[in-house]
Every structure is written in structure tokens, then in C-alpha cells.
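Format notes (please read before filing issues)

Several people have asked whether sequences and C-alpha cells are stored in separate files. They are not. Every record keeps both together, in the order shown below: the sequence lines, then the C-alpha cell lines. Line labels are part of the format and must not be stripped during preprocessing.
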Amino acid sequence: MTRNDIVHIMAWVLANHPHMQDQDLRPTVQLWERMFADVDRERFETAIMKVMARNPFFPTVAAISKALMIENDPTPIEAWGEVTKAIRIYGYCRPDEALSSMSPLTKQVVKSLGWMNICASEEPDVIRGQFMNHYSVLAQRAKDMAVLPRKLRLSDPGMASMSDAMKNVVDMLTGDVESNDSSAKESQKEHKPSKLIDFSEKNLRAHSN
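Then the structure lines:
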């Protein structure tokens, strides 16, 4: 996403927050460009619309980042359901097939606790509690990483130490799929600014004169 894309989208934000139209928004545009440069325009537009629909305040980086995340990970309870289903179908003798049936984060937690330990546990409530606690911690860690710009995530020591499964979870949350890049660029080329967008550009540029 380019700065020009952000300026265009800012027009919608200003339409929703007319009291901000006389403010110098260059720092905000620069911040959004730095934080969301790796996000394709369509996803950013959708996130902005979500924030404006749910929040009466001017969109913050935190609010936009949360709206950008794709909530497709199972809840801890749903993840445990994946485990119990795999136990019923595959048992302790077929761990590879059992793990392949699970979502990435569920698989990561099961590997940490040990498939055999889970299957052979004589205290199901205890092992379930351990699983759900571990799952919740890792899910939150993945979400914390997902709100960072991609460049920062790639250089973060915490991301470097993550397993491939955890990295997959972060990529899923952020929607970072390389195959989408070309379509995103094409949609940017085809976009035609409206009169409202022209107004926003003039409004932002007026402060730089």
C-alpha cells in the first residue's frame, strides 16, 4: 500500500470525523504508511470501515491492527475438541496422522505436551487444563506478533525463535499470502479517486505549503 492509497482512505476517515479536517494529518499519514505499508489496500480499507463502524473515535494504530487480524484460529475449547477427536480416530499409535488433522497452533501445543502423554493421561481434566493454558499463551503471543509491521516481525528475535507452526499462525492472522500481492497491486492501479478523495488530498497538502 502506498502513501497515496493512505491519503485516499483518509478521506473517508475525515468524512466520518469532520472535526479533524483542519488538523495537520501528515504525521498520521506517515505513521500509517510506516505501520501498514505491507498491507494490501483492500484489506486496509475493510479494516478502516470496521473501526469506524464500531468505534466513535479517530482510528488508532492499535484499533486498525486489531481489525486487520483474521480471526480464524480455533478457541482453546475448539482446539481441545480437535485433540479429543484425533484421539478417538487415530489413537496413540498413529501420531503423525493425528497431528496432520489439527490446525497449526493446536498441533504446536500437542507437540509441546507430547502426544503420548496426552493419550495416556489418567487425569483428563488436568491435561485439558494444561493444554488450554498453553494454547491461550501461544495464541496471544501470535496475535502480539501479528500486529507488528512485517519488516519488524521478520527482524524480531521472538519471531525468529518461533516454530514453523507458530509462524504459520502469525501469517494466517495477518493474511500474509504472497499470491495475493499481484491482485492487490492490480486493484490499486484500477482505483479511481473520487471528489471526496481529491478534497482529502488538498486538505493534507495544504499543511505542507
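For reference, the curators noted about this record: Residues 7 and 39 are 15 Å apart (CA to CA). The two ends are 25 Å apart (CA to CA).
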